[in-house]
Amino acid sequence: MYVVMYAFRVKPNQEDSFIEAWKGLTSLIYKHEGSLGSRLHKKDDLKYLAYAQWPNQSTFDKAGANLPEEANRYREIMKSACEKVEVLEKLEVVEDLLK
C-alpha cells in the first residue's frame, strides 16, 4: 500500500466549502482512479491534514486521467478555499495493523 499525506491551510469562513469539495473530489478519485480512500483530520481552527491510501505507487502516479469534469469544479472550490495546500509525505506502507 502507498500513502500520500497532505496539509491544507483553509481561509477563515471557508471550512464548510473546503470539506464538501474535499469529500466530493475524494469520492471521485476513489470511484474513477482506484484509490483506497482518504481521511481528513482537523489539526486546529484552519489547518487540516489528510492522507490518501493507494494500492501501490504506480496506481497513484497514473491517477488523474479518468476523472470526470466535475472533479475540476471540486478542485477549484478547494483551491479558492485554501491559503496553502502541500504534499507532506509519500510513503510505502511496511506493516498495516489498522483495523
TrEMBL record:
Q: Give all residue intervals belonging to the ABM domain.
A: 1-62
Keywords from UniProt, A to Z, are:
Monooxygenase, Oxidoreductase
Stored InterPro entries: ABM_dom, Dimeric_a/b-barrel
Q: Which GO terms describe its molecular function?
A: monooxygenase activity
| Stated name of the protein | Antibiotic biosynthesis monooxygenase
- Origin organism is Winogradskyella litoriviva
